[in-house]
Amino acid sequence: MDKRPVWTSKYAFIVTAIGSAVGLGNIWRFPYVMGQNGGAIFLAVYIILICTICFIPLLNELYVGKLTQKECVGAYESINKNLKPLGALNPVTGILISAFYFIVGGWIINYIFKSFSSAGIKDYGQYFSSFISEPVYPCILTLLFIFLCVFFTARGLKNGIEKANKIFMPMLALILVFLVIISLNLPDAQKGLEYMFKPDFSKLNSHMLLAALGQAFFTLSIGMGALLTYGSYIKEDKTLVKSVYTIILSDTTFAILAGIMIFPAVFSFGMLPDSGAGLVFVTLPKIFSQIPFGNLISSAFFILLFCAAVTSGISIVEGPCATLVERFKISRVKACTILFTIISLIAIPTTLSFGLLNGLKIFDKTLFEFLDFLTSNIMLPLNTLFLCIISGWYLKINGQIIIKNKMSAKLFNFGLKYIVPIALICLIVAGLK
Ligand code: PHE
What we know:
Layout: H1 10-21, H2 24-36, H3 40-51, H4 55-68, H5 72-79, H6 84-114, H7 124-132, H8 137-154, H9 157-184, H10 189-197, H11 206-219, H12 226-232, H13 240-268, H14 278-288, H15 294-328, H16 332-352, H17 367-394, H18 399-402, H19 406-432
Helix pairs in contact: 1-9, 1-13, 1-15, 2-11, 2-13, 3-10, 3-11, 3-13, 4-12, 4-13, 4-17, 5-6, 6-8, 6-15, 6-16, 6-17, 7-14, 8-9, 8-15, 8-16, 9-13, 9-15, 10-13, 11-19, 12-15, 14-15, 15-16, 17-19
Bound molecules: phenylalanine.
Residues 20-21, 23-26, 97, 218-219, 221, 224, 226, 312, 315-316 line the site of phenylalanine.
């Protein structure tokens, strides 16, 4: 078995944790969820929630990893033997998330290629739906994306995971800034900014509140053991709280910048911001086709999405990979080969649920919709709920060990025991409706 890895530096840990957080959730999901939930007011609520309620489980997950120095199953087991099955739910969630997340990764690869040859496309909506319903090509791209994420993970913490993040994250930041500048210079760009930053309080409602909470948990990668595993590679860090703030601040900045890149462009071309999941794959390509150097800008945008998706994808694979390596004493390469096979076996029928297997329904949902629903609405919040209860009520973690400030430590304790579990129960109940 490979020796248990540790981060080569604090910077490596922070960049990789940010790489996990900043993903499709920021650039694909955040703008369209915001678009569907009233714009600026959603942003305001989201920022408040992410800095308060979400701070607690994020710090908790990293801390439990650091404390136990074990992968998910081992971490839960070391707290109490009977908790092993709850620990195992984390890597299972990771595998199920990857099966639908990586399909979108495959679509992104297609759009990078298409950026250079989109001249023949007349109707982008039609193009998107006919592409995703094809039986073979999207499957090949999904497999390619799974392979890439698994490949970096198999190379280990230092030579694969850290390296990939150190390359892709700065690239992502550069491309994002470049695209924001272009978007802000489009005619009527200020309409998009107004939509983002001028709140309409009449749009405030409980549905939007829960949408913001769900988005915040998803974007921070809380609830599937990715962060617990990353936390377990920390040997010494007296500034964990600072790291958590850095992760939250960076993730939020990326999400806001993604909004500033997308909404001015959408308004400038008289389009609607609430078109849902198609915003990035239908609305934006339509816009790119109408602006000078559109091909170049389009490829930059999809490369940006690709970087974001790969670094998150790696973190999704790392949780189950560490579990296989440490529980079954096998090498990383072997663990990653097994994971590639399992994820592919779930992802292929899921990819086909847009076409060939469209009729196959679970609770009235296609396989893709079902996996998205099961993981985002139920399993992620449930895993977080379990871990908060275990830390707050069973381990009785005292915030003062982690947080120096007395008042903040007290708030942490209270939040961990009461506020976060209640918020999560509301989220799960609302998600089940
Ligand atoms: N946070 C990632 C994103 O925003 C998604 C993710 C969820 C990654 C859960 C790991 C765990 O896209």
